[in-house]
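User: Is it possible to get a 3D structure for a protein together with its bound compound? The compound here is phenylalanine. I've pasted both below.
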Amino acid sequence: MENISSRENFGSKFGIWAVAAGSAVGLGNIWRFPYLTGKNGGAAFIILYLFIVVFIGLSAMLCELAIGRRAQKNSFGAFKLLSPNGKWHYVGLLGVVASFMIFSFYSNVAGWTLEYIWQSVTGAFMGKSNQQLSQSFNLFIANGPRTIFWTLVFMLMTAFIVMSGITKGIEKYSKIMMPALFVIILILDIKALTLEGSNKGLEFLLYPDFSKITAGVVVDALGQAFFSLSLGMGVLITYGSYIGKKDNLGSTALSVSLTDTLVALLAGVMIFPAAFAFGIQADAGPGLAFISLPAIFQQMAGGQVFAFLFFVLLAIAALTSTISLLEVVVAYFVEELKMTRKKATLIAVASMSLLGILSSLSFGPLKEITLFGKTIFDLLEFTSSNLLLPIGGLFIVLFVGWFFTTKELQLELSNNGSLKARFFPVFLFIVKFIAPLAIILVFLNGLGLF
Ligand code: PHE
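Assistant: Yes, that's possible. Here is the predicted structure of the complex:
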């Protein structure tokens, strides 16, 4: 294993948490989790989701961190090094492709948050009726030049940070952004809970309606868990490769999963009470954050300030995630194609922006271009989060469960025996049997084959 000592490592435990939790916490928590919860039966969906995070997500995350730190390489190179004669490196490549796709559509929604920050500064959505708000959102996303502009701005912000390096870029900015995110979300939660009539929303979050749980919902929950924890696509392999040999992978996986789940729940606590207090549908779909919330903000005292804070929150959450997506591709370009970091970042972002532009346009001029009834944006989202991530996740757990020797795995997780790996047998059992089976069953179920 060449290169171990010359590889840049994250500087501190706090830094590792900020960077990895930064990747996990994103639009998935604040924008996607609440609308999926609203659509799929409130608390029932949350319970199912928590179950998946604890019994599958956590172990899958640990697998990725272990692969990355063991190999000290990007996701493709890691598999190549650990299994020189196998075909496993295709799993790493799948991760690079998935990152590429997610970065492209995700930056669109991230770009919308910039537009809405701008609108909350200018007060553009104040005084509009619900119908006008929904109209202006639909007009905005259909406006190619404008959405493309914001998408590109967002991509360039991400590029700037990734280009600055691991500790001086990614870690430095995450250490500022993650605490800021917590402060903002707590302010918004307190505001939401003190609104009159907010307890109806809390009830919705707390009372499970299990009749809503169907096979499709289980697939949704699994897809959401993988997406939200940034699993199955090499992000945590790549980040794991920058974690020092003395750091504790188990506690990193635990704190990152906890943070991610906590922020999703806090986002629910912020959105549902507010939605119920103002009589807005909780299952409004993806427009929830961009239509329903502005409707709420403009009815509340100090709404413009809260709107500004909310969209800044979304933008920060998105930025720490796009950084990690870009880093997967950049690390691959730097190490496998021998580019400088600067060149790798520029080439990666330039090519992703082409796909990003196409998905921006798929809300307007390219709306009619569809496959299986899905637009370019929908296709990118569906393929990457419902297909590629679980498939990647499946092969990653299989690799760790069946290809690594137990001894090797135990040494990696216990830092060569210096840590007590108490849950190792449970972890091994999950990784060998439960996680792969669950992922396969849920898949067959979703395809109607089981
Ligand atoms: N986890 C991020 C979110 O919840 C999205 C993401 C997925 C980031 C996969 C990186 C990799 O928004």
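Residues 23-24, 26-29, 102, 227-228, 230, 233, 235, 321, 324-325 surround phenylalanine (CB under 6 Å). Residues 89-122 form the longest helix (34 residues).
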